[in-house]
Automatic annotation (TrEMBL), chain A:
Biological pathway: Purine metabolism; IMP biosynthesis via de novo pathway; 5-amino-1-(5-phospho-D-ribosyl)imidazole from N(2)-formyl-N(1)-(5-phospho-D-ribosyl)glycinamide: step 1/2
Name the record gives this protein: Phosphoribosylformylglycinamidine synthase subunit PurQ
GO terms assigned for molecular function: ATP binding; glutaminase activity; phosphoribosylformylglycinamidine synthase activity
HAMAP family from the UniProt entry: PurQ
Top-level taxon: Bacteria
Subunit structure: Part of the FGAM synthase complex composed of 1 PurL, 1 PurQ and 2 PurS subunits.
Gene from which the chain derives: purQ
Subcellular location: Cytoplasm
UniProtKB/TrEMBL annotation, chain B:
Annotated binding of Mg(2+) 1, by residue: 104, 546
Annotated substrate binding sites: 105-108, 127, 251, 326-328, 548
Protein name per the record: Phosphoribosylformylglycinamidine synthase subunit PurL
Sequence ranges assigned to domain Phosphoribosylformylglycinamidine synthase linker in this UniProt record: 17-64
Domain PurM-like C-terminal: 213-368, 583-719
One family name in Pfam for this protein: AIRS
Quaternary structure and interacting proteins, as annotated: Monomer. Part of the FGAM synthase complex composed of 1 PurL, 1 PurQ and 2 PurS subunits.
One BP annotation, GO: 'de novo' IMP biosynthetic process
Species this protein is from: Lentilactobacillus rapi
InterPro entries assigned: PRibForGlyAmidine_synth_PurL, PurL_linker, PurM-like_C_dom, PurM-like_C_sf, PurM-like_N, PurM-like_N_sf
Length: 227, 745
């Protein structure tokens, strides 16, 4: 199976994702430029963190007009896994692939530190390797990670079990302590914490491996989908 | 000679410049002006030309006051691939890999506009690293502030930190460490020093040279605007309360553009090296400095630039403004004739503006053309390598004459209360509030993040890592610049050694006062000699650096503060060691003898409000010996933790080592309560698993004193000969952790 890692101008975690998949998860992976207009041949798409277009407007607001986005929307619609991390999450909300939006942290500062998350949904294609209620440690590194959704959307998220990860010690003001959500279909996950930074004990935690292993397990058990 | 055009209507004529001595306000002296007029040009320089010289002959670009001193630096070493002189130095770390590092100061811009001053400091040093062909892998920041008293003080500190955070985080280079200290000596003149470390393949070294007649000069990156005009000579002035508004000399940073420029330049260097002759950052003194240095380094050629081709952000910019603007995120390349399109295409693919603005010529003249006329025509070497060199007068500062050799004796009634007070000192307290706003992990190689002695960044796909630290204690240098200079390097080396590494080399930022004052020059000269002695002792050559003079406010200089940035190599990731105690039952030792090191110490400052007397003794040979013992122990994997003992003394080191894993200690010692605050150098606090006791004691012999054990009960108890420290670790931790946060609110 093969992962695509999208790279926008200003992305800065694309190599971290690439290395995590190649060296640790040991699956095929390729960097895909924002200029491409096709994602044919890939089984899953990863959207990395960073500051696409400097995030001078709203985080992710410019990236979502990139040539690759229609292909991404089509890819997501076909039911294949799409994971957006940090700036990737922001791009997914801007592109309309996930509900809600990400605002400035309540502290108004960028925060980089390890956070303890609780796994709230252990049957998504991104979290099946974890147990519900399991505590995992993943780093966060963001200035705009304060997830917001209106009451109605929030009700939907809860009713459909779309909240996959929650903070145990909310660092940014996110509504309902939300750290990561999936879309209604369950194949698009956005999360602010960085699982790709937590795939080796020497870097402090390997709790993030489960996210990628869940995707691999899902694809391998389901079999390849051709376009 | 070509006809040199008269300048535009608003600019002074050559005669006016001479008659009204207008060059003085641009930073040139009478002597320097005469030199340009009589010895270099043999005619009156026009406004643009005076500008070129004022930028290039500023201290910032020419090192005219510090050159004789810098020659005293120890720069040799068998692993040094490139020493001082290029954008950054390079050291061979095996496997065809080189580590590249350098530090830059941005003190003056940060004092005027803290946010942008700090961002552009980060941006500038990054360009120095990637212009060598290296990918930046880590940044560190060494900051000096006065303790915040007013809201404006707090704002300044927060803005400087926010600037570093905004730029470093966006570009995707982890800020892995640094150091922050507080003293009123830095009021109105904060120090913002940024160090950057890069990694490269040694077969891809690039140099900043433009050779080969007909080769093209390519301008890359952001457009040129009216920001930071003549910033280099601004940085070489000193501040006073009469001139609070110097804002136009500060540049504005755009990290997104820098990221694109960086990726594009690394692409050209790695994949189009045949086309590339040289590459250089447009840093201080902007276009003139990068082009003149490139031309001069190539030797034997001239250069012509057509200023109409320079991408411009504003209309009607004069040649003076174009050449001396310090707009950020710009690079200059020299590309082989015929290969221009190949290189321009790479930049276009990365979304970066690039344009040919000139070429290398026969002869030795540096010529600028604008609107069809020659607007400057000077010998290329006269700008870059023929600035005058001054041998300044040196005199022992008043405060060092008749300094009292007797060491201060701390006044301690309740040791635990004094410890609490110590942990509340901003220089000692946790800096988490600062480093939490930096992305410390991007690139996923950070093995030891901020908070331990040195940061550790692994080299991916190799069983090795780099340890990196910045250090200097200006108070020690104020009391004895030479020994204080030795101590700055020694402390950096202790931090490197404590993390399990062996020192490779250093970079520096020499932050001093006005070199034209003999006592200030004395401090600079002595400090450099002291640093150099220590570098030689530890076999850690100086491979790059930066000089920031005139750090004065109303004629009062800062403490002499030569920031030392040291890099060490860890061969084998199993040797990585941190300062935190790891498990209950481990044995706690202090390695190295403790004396009465109180003059210049944190406790003297805390209890008397000042520092005074003769600095305590220091022995470089003993320092090396102790460091080698620790290295032996880390190489044999005998230690569970190692911590350099520095500001605040042994008791502070003990408390800090308990914080990481919420463990306690039960210790007793042959030292007095006072000595627990001594800042005697050449000491480490280590913890050793009981199974390693015999082997450890065999290595350290009489140099290690067994103090007791790490405990699981979250309580710190330390018995001294004449009293004891007794405190819950949580209580101590909360004071230490909350001090800075509380003072910045």
């Amino acid at each position: 199976m093969k992962f695509a890692v999208l790279a926008f101008p200003g992305s800065n975690c694309e190599m971290d994702l690439y290395n995590a998949i190649k060296d640790i998860i040991k699956e095929d992976v390729e960097l895909v430029s924002y200029k491409n207009d096709s994602l044919a041949g890939f089984d899953a798409v990863l959207i990395p963190g960073g500051f696409s277009y400097g995030d001078y407007l709203r985080s992710g607001a410019i990236a979502r007009f990139s040539p690759i986005i229609p292909a991404l929307q089509k890819f997501a619609k076909s039911g294949k896994p799409v994971l957006g991390i940090c700036n990737g999450f922001q791009i997914l909300t801007e592109a309309g692939l996930l509900p809600g939006s990400l605002q400035k942290n309540v502290s108004a500062k960028f925060i980089c530190k390890d956070e303890t998350l609780v796994v709230n949904n252990d049957h998504s294609i991104f979290s099946s390797e974890y147990q519900k209620g399991q505590l995992i440690t993943l780093p966060i590194a963001h200035g705009d990670g304060n997830y917001y959704a209106d009451q109605e959307t929030l009700k939907d998220l809860v009713a459909n079990d779309q909240i996959v990860f929650k903070y145990t010690n909310n660092p940014n003001g996110s509504v309902d302590n939300i750290a990561g959500i999936v879309n209604k279909q369950g194949n698009v996950l956005g999360m602010m914490p960085h699982p790709e930074r937590a795939v080796e004990d020497i870097l402090g935690s390997s709790d993030g491996k489960g996210v990628f292993q869940s995707i691999v397990k899902h694809i391998k058990s389901r079999g390849v989908i051709y376009e | 000679m070509n006809k040199v055009a008269e300048q535009t209507q608003t600019e002074a004529t050559p005669e006016q410049i001479r008659d009204h001595k207008l060059y003085l306000s641009m930073g040139l002296t009478d002597h320097e002006y005469d030199l340009i007029k009589d010895d270099v040009l043999h005619r009156l320089p026009n406004y643009t030309e005076v500008g070129l010289f004022s930028g290039m002959w500023s201290e910032h670009c020419s090192y005219k006051n510090s050159k004789p001193v810098l020659k005293k630096f120890f720069t040799k070493g068998q692993h040094v691939v490139k020493g001082p002189g290029e954008g950054a130095g390079i050291i061979d770390i095996g496997d065809n890999q080189g580590v590249v590092f350098k530090a830059e100061s941005h003190n003056h811009p940060s004092a005027v506009e803290p946010f942008q001053g700090a961002t552009t400091g980060v941006g500038g040093i990054l360009r120095d690293i990637f212009s060598m062909g290296a990918r930046p892998i880590a940044s560190l920041d060494s900051l000096r502030f006065s303790a915040p008293k007013t809201d404006s003080d707090k704002y300044f500190i927060q803005q400087i930190v926010a600037g570093i955070s905004a730029y470093g985080n966006c570009i995707g280079v982890p800020t892995v460490g640094g150091d922050t200290a507080f003293d009123d000596a830095y009021e109105h003149n904060p120090l913002v020093n940024v160090m950057c470390v890069g990694l490269m393949d040694l077969d891809k070294i690039e140099v900043g040279a433009a050779a080969g007649v007909g080769n093209s000069i390519i301008y890359v990156g952001a457009k040129t605007g009216r920001d930071g005009i003549n910033g280099a000579s601004f940085a070489s002035f000193q501040f006073d309360s009469e001139h609070e508004s110097q804002r136009s000399a500060v540049q504005v940073g755009d990290p997104f553009t820098e990221k694109l420029v960086m990726e594009a330049c690394l692409d050209v260097i790695n994949n189009h090296s045949d086309a590339l002759v040289g590459i250089q950052d447009m840093g201080a003194a902007g276009l003139v400095s990068s082009s003149a240095e490139m031309g001069s380094k190539a030797g034997g050629n001239g250069m012509v630039l057509d200023l109409d081709l320079v991408p411009q952000r504003e209309v009607g910019m004069s040649a003076f403004e174009l050449m001396l603007s310090e707009s950020q995120e710009r690079m200059l390349l020299c590309v082989k004739a015929g290969h221009e399109d190949e290189v321009l295409k790479v930049f276009a693919d990365h979304g970066v503006d690039a344009v040919v603005i000139g070429h290398v010529t026969e002869g030795h003249q540096y010529q600028l053309r604008q609107h069809g006329e020659v607007v400057a025509d000077v010998p290329v070497d006269s700008l870059a390598s023929q600035a005058p060199v001054y041998h300044r007068e040196s005199a022992v500062p008043e405060h060092l004459k008749d300094a009292d050799p007797k060491q201060y004796q701390p006044q301690i009634v309740n040791p635990t209360e004094t410890l609490k007070q110590m942990l509340d000192q901003l220089t000692i307290a946790s800096k988490e509030d600062i480093y939490e706003t930096y992305d410390t992990q991007v690139q996923t190689n950070t093995v030891v993040a901020p908070g331990s002695d040195a940061a550790v960044v692994r080299v991916r796909h190799h069983d090795k890592a780099l340890a990196i630290t910045t250090d200097v204690n200006g108070r020690y240098l104020y009391l004895n610049p030479r020994v204080g200079g030795q101590m700055a390097v020694a402390e950096a080396a202790r931090n490197i050694v404590a993390s399990g590494a062996v020192p490779l080399g250093i970079t520096d930022c020499l932050n001093f006062g006005n070199p034209e004052k003999p006592d200030q020059f004395y401090e600079l000269d002595q400090a450099v000699m002291g640093m150099s002695e220590a570098c030689e002792k530890f076999e850690a050559p100086v491979i790059s650096g930066n000089v920031s003079l005139n750090n004065e406010y109303d004629n009062v200089p800062i403490y002499p503060t030569p920031m030392v940035g040291m890099v060490g190599l860890i061969k084998g990731l199993e040797h990585v060691t941190t300062q935190d105690f790891k498990q209950a039952g481990d044995l706690v030792y202090v390695v190295g003898k403790t004396g009465d090191g109180f003059n210049g110490s944190q406790i003297q400052k805390m209890q008397t409000g000042k520092i005074s007397g003769q600095l305590f003794d220091f022995d470089l040979d003993y320092e090396l010996k102790i460091q080698q013992l620790i290295t032996k122990a880390t190489q044999a994997n005998l230690l569970n933790s190692a911590h350099d003992i520095s500001e605040g003394g042994l008791i502070t080191a003990i408390a800090e080592s308990t914080f990481g894993n919420q463990l306690g200690v039960s210790l007793s010692s042959s030292l007095s309560v006072n000595q627990f605050f001594s800042e005697t150098q050449s000491r480490f606090l280590v913890s050793v698993p009981q199974a390693n006791q015999a082997q450890f004691e065999q290595i350290t012999g009489s140099q290690a004193e067994l103090l007791g054990k790490v405990t699981a009960d979250n309580h710190l108890f330390v018995q001294a000969t004449d009293g004891y420290f007794d405190i819950d670790v949580d209580t101590a931790f909360n004071i230490w952790k909350g001090a800075l946060q509380c003072r910045l609110k």
